[in-house]
Amino acid sequence: MMNTVTLRNLKNSLITVSMVCATVAVLVPLGLIFFHIMKMGASSINLDFFIHIPKPTGETGGGMANGMVGSALLIALASTIGIPVGVFGALYLVEFGGSRASNAIRFAADVLAGVPSIITGMVAYTLLVVPMKGFSALAGAVALALIMVPIVLRTTEEQLKMVPGSLREASLALGVPLWRTCLKVTLRSATKGVMTGILLSIARVAGETAPLLFTALGNQFWSHKLTEPIAAMPLQIFNFAIAPYEDWHRLAWAGALVLVTVMFALSLTARYLGRSKQQS
Amino acid sequence: MSNHTGDLTISQPPGCTENTVTNETPPAPIASTKGLNADLVFKGVTAAFAFSILVILALMALEMVKESLPTIKAFGWEFINSSDWNPVQDTFGALPYIWGSVVSSILALALATPLSVGTALFITEIAPRKFGGVVASLVELLAAIPSVIYGLWGVLVMAPWLQQTVQPFLIEHFGFLPFFQGAPYGVSMLAAVFILMIMVIPIITSITKEVLLAVPQSQREAAIALGATRWEMIRMAVLPYGRSGILGAVILGLGRAIGETMAVTMVIGNTPQISLSLLSPAYTMPSVIANEFAETTSKLHASALMEIGLILLAVTLVINVMARLLLWGMTRQAAGGAK
């Protein structure tokens, strides 16, 4: 009898140890990736990185200034397209939608969120690049917007659902029209949560590369028109990482450091907003 | 007035607001007609945005099917059964890519699942709550890293390490197995499996964690009260309860792994061949699209890549629906259990 108890305890300890090992095994690559981004990025980054465009093959130096501006532009454009669709779509789901229509839309959003991002790029290619006869910043932004929409929609919906019905009723009882109630009361009181969703969606698309491959395409130089190919940081990191030049690898690491820093700043802000919302 | 109190008892916001509007219009002459019109416009605008998602999805599927029709007509089933991919002669068979996608994803999941479930169990069942929370946020950080950065790390750090350390070791000690034959290239199926494993772990871990947290505390207490050790409690009470949810998490991970493009493209070596050896380079469906789609040589070439995309879309669709159903079943179970 004693023997079985010891055996059971032994088994318990063994499994506990193996779970600790699994956790360590999960965290080690994380640590290594951070370590390398920090080490290689910090040693490669300098002022030139922020103010210069990439040098031609064979010359050392240069930076990713055009990629940073391009990425910012793409994200701004994608947000202009994607955020209204997500936020207003969520308002419809919460305020007007019948259960069947709402479920269909929710399901479609979930499916859209699961579509591999490269497919989004292909679709943007056939719908925009082919008719417009050329790769363009606009097509890239649309591809990114398609990725943002389901994220914004679902998070906004969750937040709007949490707004108490009494708040809406109070507003309506005061004679405020429904549309104003939706915008000024319902949406307003969920602002923090909605911002969280928007920031998370921006963090997500900021690093997306696959949908830009055949839409924004990338550009070695500055570009000013939305109908022209535009540089983007993730694309530059990709191209520089697979190129056989030591100096380009250096730029890729510096780019990775900048990108990861921006994304973590976004996620942390989102998380902070989300948390203070829960506490209040 | 009676209508109004009736509304208050309904806690469902959608029904409530609609009722209020219809009841409100007659007795409120100030904002009546103008407000109603504006409301209708507002409803129309939000509806347009909401339904645009359905339109986008339908358009996506339609475009993919339409664009891949030429190869479907030209090759039929031979497309997924042949490994002859030759853009110059316009013959296309996608088998090596399908093989590469399936093998890399399944192996990555086989490695990631025990690690993820172990970590999720560590977070929820073993670690002190605060420490568990720290581990959980660290794992979520892993999910926030863009795939191109995984690729960068994979091709510049992990692949050389595999080439110099791991692969020679495997060849020396397990070289008699068909899985570890050939020269150590670094970029290989093995590298893709490892990078995919690292990438799907955070997804499976965080969903499994949520599922485990949904297991009612009473289940655990009952097992402990019967004299179970912690592992017995996990095995008899926690895991059976969360089984379908964990399966859903793993399937969502599979969806992510199959669709993953950049990181895999950077480390897999991009060679369309079917080899049992994990050390040889391979190719996946998203990778061939990423590498060739921007510079297709012919209409048929573009169509062939589209058909690969269509297969990918169909597979991820099925996977996602399955995962949602499983996870939905889990949350319903949890809601039922809480009563």
From TrEMBL, chain B:
PROSITE patterns in the cross-refs: ABC_TM1 (PS50928)
Cellular component annotations (GO), alphabetically ordered: plasma membrane
Principal place of residence: membrane
Gene3D superfamilies attached to this UniProt entry: MetI-like (1.10.3720.10)
Record GO terms (molecular function): phosphate transmembrane transporter activity
Residues passing through the membrane, by range: 40-62, 97-123, 135-162, 182-204, 245-268, 308-327
Family that this chain belongs to: Belongs to the binding-protein-dependent transport system permease family. CysTW subfamily.
Protein name (record): Phosphate transport system permease protein
Organism: Geobacter hydrogenophilus
